[in-house]
Structure to design on (624 residues):
């Protein structure tokens, strides 16, 4: 793979290679791990490493019971160490990352992480400070409607983390003020805001995947979708909108009922804008093994576009 | 304590204060913890933090059984992370330090360490690379005779770490080639080499503390002992010698039977060379609670002299 290595960025006289860094921020159970999984699959684990920065907890589950805040509060996390570790990774250096075991709620033996060509950083707080944001080439915020996120969280925390539905709902309520103060404000620092949701004007049946609405902010250079998308495409369209704060931005809608063929055509067209051999990676768009979503696949493809483009 | 803070070193435009860093290197059971303890007592834990860099083990005790080397081998340790953390501390930054639990032999939850005015770093490898050495203002190597170190190690590892004497002896034998290759070579990078040993020409009884031989290399500026020590002092003397490699160095001998009064006089004279209020700290020189050694006290006092002098 010497050509790949040569394409990694290196400043003159510098020994370590600087990876391309992507942040995926969002509240608990907003879909970060699902989105990340497809990107790692698409790039291959030999070129890509993904870490979760929720491991920078100061307290274990037992100790948190005596604390006046939830894990969403910055004071509940070693934000300064997270900043330090993100800076080190961005410089191509290894870190000894703390590890929080979600299944037991305990802090355990740390893990040695070496950056690869691409580093994906997902979690509650990756965009929370100016220093962390400066480490990233591309930043994403996951912004599902609250009712959908609640469903996802109840489903996951009861299945995988040993909580009862009542505990999860109480937890969501306790976390709400800190979600508002510390998680949702990161949205405005993202280059791309991703919302998976049903289209309110349609009554899609439950087996239709959620649609995706991607806010593509002009803070980075996106693929030329206005050129690539034909006007008569009924399941994917691009429009200029104003964001909540009034700033202009592109908004891409990909309907849940978009066909694999339609989505595949746009994916190929986006991929052709890159100087890459071969076509787009085949293994993206999986919600769970066997369950596929074209809106998810297109979202992941656009992120892969940015990661590959950022190397140059 | 505003005056103390002002005296901490800060480079123009830099936010964090840089601590004075002391390394105490030496083989297992060479007396590092005892020496460090008196320094922390002397400075006060509000001004001083001590860390042990043997926590940077890659493997726990169980995993090490399958490894072809002992913990003395650099490949058994995250030397790169140790370098990184020492650099961060030297810059006044906090670290999330790994923790190795000697009583169970397992790697556990890491520990947040913020540098204070003084940082003491003891362990097997603090002087093992050029980058680590560059972090220190003062460097010490503990160099007891092997038979004394063996006694200390058997005593400690059976009392505190749950080994049998036979296991400790087998361990010492297994470690010997790596002691030679990786631990003892650090001796030549130390500003001060400390050897606690009986004086071979005397037959001191067992209740007389060991004498100290301090090699004071001209790599840092030592207190003017040749002026401070009178020629008729029979229990402490200074001479110029050649080190093993032929380089000239000062050698200070403090006899185990030196009286508290004699040692105290020299301590006061050394202390007077500093711009410090009050006298030398009273709580140094303890081998164990209630057991005092004047050679240890003087060794610690000379190190305190260097730490305080290095701030300026």
């Amino acid at each position: 793979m010497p050509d790949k290595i040569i394409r990694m960025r290196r400043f003159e006289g510098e020994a370590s290679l600087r990876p391309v860094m992507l942040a995926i921020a969002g509240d608990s159970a907003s879909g970060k791990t699902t989105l990340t999984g497809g990107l790692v699959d698409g790039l291959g684990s030999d070129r890509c490493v993904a870490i979760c920065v929720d491991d920078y907890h100061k307290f274990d589950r037992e100790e948190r019971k005596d604390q006046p805040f939830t894990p969403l509060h910055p004071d509940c996390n070693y934000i300064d160490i997270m900043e330090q570790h993100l800076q080190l990774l961005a410089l191509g250096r290894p870190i000894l990352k703390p590890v929080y075991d979600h299944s037991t709620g305990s802090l355990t033996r740390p893990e040695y992480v070496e950056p690869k060509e691409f580093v994906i950083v997902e979690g509650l707080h990756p965009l929370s400070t100016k220093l962390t944001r400066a480490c990233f080439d591309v930043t994403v915020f996951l912004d599902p409607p609250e009712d959908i996120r609640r469903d996802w969280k109840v489903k996951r925390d009861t299945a995988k983390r040993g909580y009862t539905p009542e505990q999860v709902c109480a937890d969501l309520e306790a976390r709400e003020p800190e979600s508002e103060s510390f998680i949702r404000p990161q949205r405005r620092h993202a280059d791309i805001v991703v919302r998976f949701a049903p289209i309110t004007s349609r009554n899609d049946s439950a087996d239709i995947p959620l649609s995706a609405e991607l806010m593509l902010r002009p803070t980075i250079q996106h693929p030329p979708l206005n050129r690539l998308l034909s006007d008569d495409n009924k399941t994917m369209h691009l429009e200029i909108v104003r964001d909540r704060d009034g700033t202009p931005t592109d908004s891409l809608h990909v309907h849940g009922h978009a066909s694999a063929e339609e989505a595949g055509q746009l994916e190929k067209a986006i991929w052709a804008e890159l100087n890459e051999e071969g076509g787009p990676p085949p293994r993206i768009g999986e919600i769970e093994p066997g369950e596929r979503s074209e809106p998810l696949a297109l979202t992941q493809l656009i992120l892969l576009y940015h990661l590959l483009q950022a190397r140059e």
About this structure: Chain A has ten helices and twelve strands. The longest helix of chain A spans residues 165-183. Confidence is low (pLDDT under 50) at residues 1-7 of chain A. The first strand of chain A starts at residue 20 and ends at 26.
